[in-house]
Amino acid sequence: HRRQRQMCIRDRSLFASAATVAGPSGVIASSGDTALRAEELAAEVDVMAPAQRERFAKSSRSQINLATELLVRREIAARARQDGLADDPAVQYRLQLLQDRLLYEVYMQRAEAAALNDAAIEKLAYDEYRAYKDKFVTPEAVRVSHILLRVDAGGGQGRDRAQVEILAEELLGRLQAGEDFATLATEYSEDPGSARNGGDLGFFERGRMAKPFEEAAFALQEPGELSGIVETQFGLHILRLNERRESGQRSFDEVRDELIATNRLQARKRVRLDIVEPLRDPARLKIDATALEAVFAAD
Question: Strand, coil or helix: what is 154?
Fold first, then answer.
């Protein structure tokens, strides 16, 4: 309850601060007889996601658009009241549902804030890290470049095998003589995705590539080392090792933010379930199934 009171104080201070900035009248925008007070805008801002709020904070145009939209909405709502729509029973029911939804969400958010202690969440994260350290191992990976020469499989896609073998041997010899791999990959490789990057495939772990390609890639030890000619279902390849990344244990500091976010989300779900599940107990619910069917069957 103390944490909930603190949340209430924070909300009130946000609105009070907004009203102070707007001056004695508290009006921050107006259109004709319609006015928008600073604390009302603050209420809209308060329910924004942090990333959305940050975007608005950086854009005067977005702020003006938001204030304009709220003014327009308020003016249309005033016209609706003048037309008696607020007295329509169907509208009143919908307003009640909207109010219930808002109060439900605010109640849940404050219950979460009261229950989610930062130190306790971090301890849960650290306990998970210690219990499942194997989950936080960086697997061995290599970064290689390749030149792919496709072999015609009978569909007219690529040269015949003899031609491809001759070209592959020629290119391997030129590379071994010191010619630039990226230049030759850009010119000759028939892998369009990597050729534009000089043949660079980036880092990959075991299990990601065709088996012969993977074996050749992980057999390379020193940056700059070349493979021989490697055959896969895609054609003939020449590989060059750019970088190796050995397997290693990630520290808690490296995974801390990720684990805290996961444990915070799980804790939020538990808080909500602890509140909601007792209220869903079939023993306390009385539901007229026939009346329910009639509502859904109505035109």
Answer: coil
**Inter-residue contact 159 to 167 (CB < 8 Å):** yes
What is the C-alpha to C-alpha distance for residues 215 and 208, in angstroms, rounded to an integer?
11
pLDDT at 18 over 90: no
Residue 219: CB atoms within 10 A of its CB come to 13
Q: Round to whole Å and give the CA distance between 217 and 144.
A: 7
How many Cα neighbours within 13 Å face the side chain of 5?
A: 2
DSSP sequence for 19-41: HHHH-TT-EEEEETTEEEEHHHH
Half-sphere exposure of 103 (CA within 13 A, CB side): 6
Mention every residue, 6+ apart, whose C-beta is less than 8 A from residue 265. none
The alpha carbon of residue 117 and the mean position of all alpha carbons in its chain are separated, in whole angstroms, by: 24
Give the tokens for residue 131. 């219990």
Q: What is the mean pLDDT of residues 197-212?
A: 96
Task: Identify whether the C-beta of residue 141 lies closer than 8 Å to the C-beta of residue 202.
Answer: no
Whether residue 19 has pLDDT greater than 80: no
205 three-class SS:
strand
User: CA 153 → CA 187, 231, 265, distances in Å?
Assistant: 22, 13, 52
Neighbouring residues of 11: CB distance < 8 A, sequence distance ≥ 6: 46
- Tell me phi and psi for residue 159, to 5 degrees: -80, 170
Helices (H), 49-160: 50-57, 60-82, 89-115, 118-131
pLDDT value at residue 3: 46
| pLDDT, tens digit (0-9, with 9 covering 90-100), for 27-44 | 999 999 899 999 999 989
CB–CB of 239/216 below 8 Å?
A: yes
Question: For residue 271, what are its two tokens?
Answer: 């808080």
Of all helices (H) and strands (E), which one includes residue 34?
Answer: strand 34-37
